[in-house]
Amino acid sequence: MSLRIVFLGTPEFATTSLNALLQSKHEVVGVVTAPDKPAGRGQQLNESDVKKFAVQHELKLFQPEKLRDEQFIQELKNLNADLFVVVAFRMLPEVVWNMPRLGTLNLHGSLLPQYRGAAPIQWAVMNGETETGCTTFRLKHEIDTGEVLGQHKMSIAPNETAGELYERMMHEGADLLVRTLDLLEEEKVEPIAQEELITSELKHAPKLLKEDGRVRLTDTPAVVHNRVRGVTPFPGAFTTFQGKTLKIHKGLPEETEHSFELGSFHSDNKTFLKLAVNGGYYNLIEVQLEGKKRMAVDEFLRGNSLREE
């Protein structure tokens, strides 16, 4: 037996799950994604990654402007799906998520109930977690609070960025999704209320803003390192260098005592560049000065020397 599935998603992260569903025994009877949006200087219409994938694989595609549109709702009903699957999509109205007989399943990038919100992967790294994972759960009214159907734990390496963790979770999350669907079809899933999984204070994962990438000079080197890793590649870490914005793509913490002004830079003008923070330095490895390309710090120093203080 197989389940009839409608898939709802938008970015690249979701395409990996959609591809895994196509390789599984289950049947994808429809795909819902965001409408094309104008982007760039020419305002050309930009298609979502999920749309490109769906068109390439000749899947039935829907791009409703409004999820409550009566025609769209009727078309969804006509698909007679057993289950809706959501991966990185916008908030659904109840008339949609409550439609199929098995409800709607969501794949989330954390071990719920921890890190509910829009940026769970980034906040786990920013908070210095050494373990995270992904969760499949049933949608209900409150965001990210439905019954847990499956979980998969993942370690976070000390220097791993959110982008690198995102890449791993794309694939491991897709595997968890298929395993969950197989168990659902076999009626072997035992849903767990998230309240039963709360063992410590809940941490949240709100949408990241550009300002979240600013290095806080009063933080310790380790905390700065976690922030840099957590906002890489988006929205990106940055500080100020000689009055200009300096993006930090890669660095390492150095815990040591110093008496320098926080935010001051220190270098031999050849091989290293250190940013003084609370309790040590942040050693910059790859940087990008405002208006310039990304480069290794030794290359950067050839055009941006400074006098040691």
Class from helix and strand fractions: alpha/beta
CATH superfamily of the largest domain: Formyl transferase, N-terminal domain
DSSP helix fraction: 25-40%
**How widely separated are the two ends?**
72 Å
Beta fraction: 25-35%
Overall CATH architecture of the largest domain: 3-Layer(aba) Sandwich
User: How is the biggest beta sheet arranged?
Assistant: 7 strands, mixed
Helical segment count:
8
> Which CATH class of the largest domain applies here?
Alpha Beta
Number of strands: 15
Low-confidence stretches: none
Report mean pLDDT, rounded to a whole number.
Answer: 96
- Spatial strand arrangement across the major sheet: 5-2-1-6-7-8-9
- What is the molecular shape? elongated
Please state the CA-atom Rg, rounded to the nearest Å.
23 Å
Task: Briefly note the CATH topology name of the largest domain.
Answer: Rossmann fold
The total number of structural domains is 2
One letter per element, helices H and strands E, the order comes to EHEEEHEHEHEHEEHHEEEEEEH
Secondary-structure topology with pairs:
Elements: E1 4-9, H1 12-23, E2 27-32, E3 37-39, E4 44-46, H2 49-56, E5 61-62, H3 70-78, E6 83-87, H4 94-97, E7 104-108, H5 120-126, E8 131-138, E9 148-155, H6 162-185, H7 221-230, E10 237-241, E11 244-255, E12 265-267, E13 273-277, E14 280-289, E15 295-296, H8 297-303
Parallel strand pairs: 1-2, 1-6, 2-5, 6-7
Antiparallel strand pairs: 3-4, 7-8, 8-9, 10-11, 11-14, 12-13, 13-14, 14-15
Helix pairs in contact: 1-6, 5-6, 5-7
